[in-house]
Amino acid sequence: SVLARGRNYNLLWTSNFIDIGGEFDSYKQTQVIFSNLSDVLHKHGMTIRNNMLRTWIFCRDVDNHYKGMVKARREYFENIGLTNKTRYIASTGINGSSVDQTTLITLDALSVGNIREEQIVRMMALENLSDTIAYGVTFERGFRIRYGDRSHIYISGTASIDAEGNTIYISDIRKQAERTLDNIDAL
Fold first, then answer.
1. What pLDDT is attached to residue 132?
2. pLDDT tens-digit map of 158-183
3. Backbone angles phi, psi at 89, to 5 degrees
């Protein structure tokens, strides 16, 4: 973890969170990772609910282990009060692996200390891409974080998706990239 202290805000970057020696189960590893991350944030006066803004979740063999991660994240978020009525966290879940072959889930996260809920603005572009809850995942497409003199934008989960949540242009990488950029522009 790296903590950068500012005059008004502290940025905490946590990287390469894994469940060392855990079970070979993406659901259980995700539970342990979020619990351990919560402990680290607590040491810095932060919580996942109030301060974590962005995650990058690397899932080994994503076709087989993503579902377990999604279920554990959804349950964890519900328990701490992150719902579709409040907000989720901007997140990217992609294929990735650790040197340790028993590690199925690795997580990096960015959290901001001293931020207030009203500074966090959900970014949606429902004419272009669906809300993620439509297909059962719990992350935000993006956030705008309002500071006094500027805003920071965090974009996530903006693949080649249409307004109904369907992946489009499956066999055309150029059109997929164009659609992704269109979705980012819409957000």
1. 87
2. 889 999 989 999 999 999 999 999 99
3. -120, 140
User: In this structure, what token pair is assigned to residue 135?
Assistant: 């297909």
The distance from CA 27 to its chain's CA centroid, rounded to whole angstroms, is: 16
Does the CA dihedral 70-134-119-125 come out positive or negative? positive
Q: What does the pLDDT look like over 6-32, one tens digit per residue?
A: 999 999 999 999 998 889 999 999 999
How does pLDDT run across 131-146, given as a tens digit for each residue? 888 878 899 999 999 9
Contact, 129 vs 146, CB < 8 A?
A: no
Contact 128, 183 (CB under 8 A): yes
- Assigned token pair, 34: 């979020």
Contact yes or no for 18/60 (Cβ under 8 A): no
Q: What's the 3-state SS for the chain? A: CEEEECCCCEEEEEEEECCCCCCCCHHHHHHHHHHHHHHHHHHCCCCHHHHEEEEEEEECCHHHHHHHHHHHHHHHHHHHCCCCCCCCCEEEEEECCCCCCCCCEEEEEEEEECCCHHHEEECCCCCCCCCHHHHCCCCECEEEEECCCCEEEEECCCCCECCCCCECCCCCHHHHHHHHHHHHHHC
Token output for 50: 């109030």
- Any residues with CB less than 8 A from the CB of 86 and at least 6 apart, and which? none
Model-level pTM? 0.92
